[in-house]
UniProtKB/TrEMBL annotation:
Domain (SusD-like N-terminal) ranges: 61-205
Chief location of this protein within or outside the cell: membrane
Keywords recorded for this protein, A-Z: Cell outer membrane, Membrane, Signal
Lineage, broadest ranks: Bacteria, Pseudomonadati, Bacteroidota, Chitinophagia, Chitinophagales
Entry GO CC: cell outer membrane
Name listed for the protein in its UniProt record: Putative outer membrane starch-binding protein
Listed Gene3D superfamilies: 1.25.40.390
Amino acid sequence: MKASYIFIFALGMAFCGCKKILNPADENNRGLSDIYNDAAFAEGLLLNGYVRLPLGSYSLNDVATDDAVSNNPNNNFRLMATGNWSSINNPMDQWTGSFAAIQYLNLILAEADKVNWALTGEYTKEMFNDRVKGEAYGLRALFMYYLLQAHGGWGTDNKLLGVPILTEPLDSKSEFRVPRNTFEECVQQIYKDLEMAESFLPLDFVNIGSANEIPSKYTGKTTVSDYNRVFGAYNAQRMTTRIVRGIRAKISLLAASPAYAQGTTITWVKAADDAAAVLDLIGGLSGIAYNGVYWYASRNSGEINGLSAGNNPREVLWRGNVGDGNNLERDNYPPTLYGNGRVNPTQNLVDAFPMINGYPVTDPSSGYDAGNPYTNRDPRLALYIVVNGSKMGPGGATIYTRIGTSDDGLNAISTSTRTGYYMRKLLREDVNLNPASTNTQRHYVPYIRYTELFLAYAEAANEAWGPDGKGAHSYSAREVIAAIRNRAGIAQPDTYLASITSKDDMRTLIHNERRIELCFEGFRFWDLRRWQKNLTEPAKGVSINNNVYTISNIENRQYADYMYYGPLPYNDVLKLNLLQNKGW
């Protein structure tokens, strides 16, 4: 009996001793308070904003416009343009990703002052805190811009609405059913955030060489080495005052545009001033990059391959990381170059390129020959679009899009062009996809190009002061367009440009230059909507047979008038009791 009790007691003690082994370990879930003494963990909240930027690759949403079609029947933008756009199926949605980013940014803004950002260095903790808050304010403004662009619109209450303004982090006790603010209130919140960002951030992240270069805010409080540790070149491509000003120019242009002007106080003068505030930093017109029409191309490989340490090309204000690859070429090379020919430029876009003398192809003075439609055209046509007879790829192969020649011909196989054209812009033609000798090349995606801002200034300046007005600046809309066309290869003085005297005619030209210069970079869809231009222009193509060029409609565009403004997600409208935009 004693032996049995001893055995049972020993067994019980053994199990008690094993309790910690048999029970599951505590979960390694860190709490918010852990950020206070772990700067890297705290910075992760900020970085969640960066990783959610919809800027990592080209959306190629031109397929949803009159500029392009896709040979992929399951392409979301193709489906959207042909009648399948809804509040449940929205390829342009920015709602979930942007609000998730804003939640993380609100968290870091609420907690940043409590974080021990640095253990060493003079005033470094305070400088790190400034930098992080400046980046967070700038990013929050940018995500609000994306939300307004995608979801702002006239609500069922006949007010121009934006989205709910959230400036505090939400938790389980928060009230989630927050109504939409007006579009104007959202715009003003963006301006406030941008002003706050500028108060914390330097113009650029660069290393300084002497104490005299330390900003007055930190003079006498820190050293050159500690300042560079926080605000030096190591941080290039993160949010800066220069980028903040670029974002301000973008939101001002959006708010002043016809689709939103009736619901905001933003004027064309402000839009022009905000664009000029960025352009003047590079010397105005003298800052136009000579290679701005081929910043992406193989002929610019030296600059692209040389990008390092966060440096930007002259054409680019802000960019993503550089990386080696060939996916863009694999998707869009013609079939004979082992590509899938996905994005097919339309005849509509081809017709937008003027002749070398600057006249539109529809003008009797242009010299356009319908029997030789690609001769004596604006050089940008050959740079951006593969036409019948173009040479392309690492070996300079001739691409024939006419009927009955090769797999590159119109509708020859499933990966052939549907329009008679292939996309050339954005592609590195020193990429070889031949399975026997496949290679990759360096690519990068610009977030903001200076050409975009020059065109924004030209548009706003023309609306504010006419073709030759300058406001408080040293250059006019006409001078900007002349410089861009001259860079493209249209000799100046430009007789056609000189013939334009009215604001209306200059507007037409500026819109067309924007269409050409920014094609395939994700601008056309948003531009058509903010201009309230025709969304239903059919996508056209060309059939070439025995040197006869036949133009026909390839794909109809099925948009209703209410689609100038995008929908809020259906489920969020129901869950959060939000007013939907009209029509959705």
